[in-house]
Amino acid sequence: MGDSMGRALVPDADGSTERHFEQMWESLIADFTAHPDLWLASMELFMQAQRQPELRAALGEGMAEGRRGMAAILENVPESEVAETSVRTLGSVQLALMSGLMIQHLGDPATAPTTAEVLQGLRGLGDLAR
To answer: Looking at the whole model, is its pTM more than 0.70?
Structure first.
């Protein structure tokens, strides 16, 4: 799962930022569809972490790394150069969006949003946040 997720998120050298963002969502949705058991296992991990403090701590560390990684990918900079505000804002929001989309695709893949719908929704949210 990590390798396919990494490939989904890393920009291709030739693409525009906008096209890369679209491809990232396309790849994630394809991965949710192709490997639902792996994504369900990650959800089970979250549930178990609620009852196991050691697992919860490890999961928290992983999520912190994930937020930093998301921000780095979206800003196209090394993780070491990501500002803490970007980790807490851009990285957190991207991780939340991915998690929510994953849950929708696992729960009801037939009605889960497409890439085009996700991008349209994000544009609408961007307009509201101005």
So the answer is: yes
